[in-house]
């Protein structure tokens, strides 16, 4: 009697094992065949960027997660659009412009207005080599014709050199001084020589929401400060 009961128990266990194994194979085969409802495997869940939480499957970057934005998107959104900037002295400075020669003949003194201007890209070197260049221009505008030295001699009685000047018939031809620089970029950027040596030119806040370039003879407000 006990043998019959044992035999029947073993038979039931064998049948149950067979049914269990056939079910596992069917689920694996169904996934491999792409049958709907089969569900992703644990490895597929990992590859898809998903994680298990309390028995459920949720995306790694759920809505509202602080990591929802990728680093690439963050970098792209923080980059400035390159804009050509202009800073120029709004009040030219009066001064005396001098043209000097070694022997003194032709020395020219003329009252003139000094104006300074600088053009640069808001992103500067941070935006790439094509936006690194800045152009600084210094311009003297003559007022009148000035006086020119026509004779120079040493006066023994006075024991000094005498400079004889005459009124010029025409104003001097003063060419603008143009210098190429490099700009580092940004609202606290600095300007330096092409060889890397520093200059005194730099950008700073004007205290009223705009920006100004200092370090030259004149302060140069940035005319389109919003672009910075």
Task: Record the SSE blueprint.
Elements lengths: L1 H32 L8 H6 L2 E4 L2 E4 L11 H8 L5 E5 L4 E7 L8 E14 L11 E10 L4 E9 L4 E8 L9 E7 L6 E3 L5 E8 L5 E4 L5 E2 L7
Antiparallel strand pairs: 1-2, 3-5, 4-5, 5-6, 5-7, 6-9, 7-8, 9-10, 10-11, 11-12, 12-13
Per DSSP, what share of the residues sits in E-state strands of 2 or more residues?
A: 35-45%
Q: What is the helix content?
A: 10-25%
End-to-end separation: 97 Å
The DSSP helix count reads 3
Largest sheet: 11 strands, antiparallel
Number of strands: 13
Q: Which class best fits the helix and strand makeup?
A: alpha+beta
Low-confidence parts: 2-6, 18-78
Envelope shape? elongated
Features:
228 residues, alpha+beta, 11-stranded antiparallel sheet, 20% helix, disordered N terminus
């Amino acid at each position: 009697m006990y043998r019959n009961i044992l035999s029947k128990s073993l038979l039931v266990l064998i049948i149950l094992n067979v049914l269990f194994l056939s079910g596992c194979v069917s689920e694996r085969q169904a996934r491999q065949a792409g049958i709907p409802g089969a569900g992703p495997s644990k490895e597929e869940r990992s590859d898809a960027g998903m994680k298990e939480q309390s028995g459920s499957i949720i995306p790694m970057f759920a809505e509202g997660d602080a990591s929802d934005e990728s680093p690439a998107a963050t970098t792209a959104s923080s980059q400035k659009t390159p804009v050509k900037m202009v800073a120029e002295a709004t009040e030219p400075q009066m001064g005396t412009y001098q043209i000097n020669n070694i022997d003194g003949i032709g020395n020219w003194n003329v009252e003139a207005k000094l104006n300074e201007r600088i053009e640069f890209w808001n992103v500067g070197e941070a935006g790439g080599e094509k936006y690194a260049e800045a152009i600084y221009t210094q311009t003297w505008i003559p007022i009148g014709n000035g006086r020119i030295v026509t004779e120079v001699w040493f006066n023994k009685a006075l024991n000094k050199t005498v400079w004889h000047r005459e009124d010029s018939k025409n104003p001097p031809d003063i060419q603008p001084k143009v210098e190429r620089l490099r700009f580092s970029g940004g609202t606290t950027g600095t300007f330096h020589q092409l060889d890397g040596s520093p200059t005194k030119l730099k950008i700073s806040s004007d205290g009223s929401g705009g920006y100004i370039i200092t370090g030259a003879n004149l302060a140069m407000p940035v005319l389109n400060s919003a672009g910075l």
